[in-house]
């Protein structure tokens, strides 16, 4: 992905409505960013805010989390917003942990819930 700042958006199934609403409500700020998202999350974000520049990758369980992890490791993702559902078991939990580990290792800003994403937004405007 060439040029511009890139934000990754991911949401577990029970959080996809929250992510779509977050994108709709904050589309002015998000419109200044290139966005990569896992498949279903990206589709829901585009439904809520069709004017955003969203590249949809594979679904999380089918490798989308790993694709975003690869983009983080190559310096192509600058921030991550991941609405995690801590109450539902995930069959691809190891992929989720690996993705979070890469965000930590590469020291990119990461929000794991709505409240933290709201706090992260002002830094995305810069």
Describe the protein's architecture and organization.
Substrate binds at residues 12, 16, 38-41, 59-60, 92. Keywords: Lyase. Catalyzes the formation of methylglyoxal from dihydroxyacetone phosphate. It is an enzyme of class 4 (lyase). It holds the Pfam family MGS. This protein has 126 residues and is of the alpha/beta class. It has a single domain (6-125), classed as Methylglyoxal synthase-like domain (Rossmann fold, 3-Layer(aba) Sandwich), CATH 3.40.50.1380. The chain has 6 helices and 5 strands, in the order βααβαβαβαβα. It has helices spanning 16-25, 27-30, 39-48, 64-73, 93-105, 114-125, and strands spanning 6-11, 34-37, 54-56, 79-83, 110-111. Strands 3-2-1-4-5 form a 5-stranded parallel sheet, sandwiched between helices. Helix 5 (93-105) links the parallel strand 4 and strand 5. Helix 1 (16-25) packs across helix 3 and helix 4 runs parallel beside helix 5 (93-105). The longest helix is centred in the C-terminal third of the chain and has 13 residues, at 93-105. The radius of gyration is 13 Å and the shape is globular. The two termini are 20 Å apart.
């Amino acid at each position: 992905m060439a040029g511009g700042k890139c934000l990754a958006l991911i949401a577990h199934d029970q959080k996809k409505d929250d992510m779509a609403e977050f994108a709709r409500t904050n589309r002015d700020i998000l419109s200044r960013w290139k966005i990569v998202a896992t498949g279903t999350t990206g589709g829901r974000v585009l439904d809520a805010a069709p004017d955003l520049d969203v590249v949809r990758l594979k679904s999380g369980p089918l490798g989308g989390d790993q694709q975003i992890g690869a983009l983080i490791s190559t310096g192509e993702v600058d921030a991550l917003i991941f609405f995690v559902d801590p109450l539902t078991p995930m069959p691809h939990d190891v992929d989720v942990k690996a993705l979070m580990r890469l965000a930590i290792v590469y020291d990119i800003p990461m929000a794991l819930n709505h409240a933290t994403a709201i706090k992260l937004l002002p830094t995305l405007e810069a």
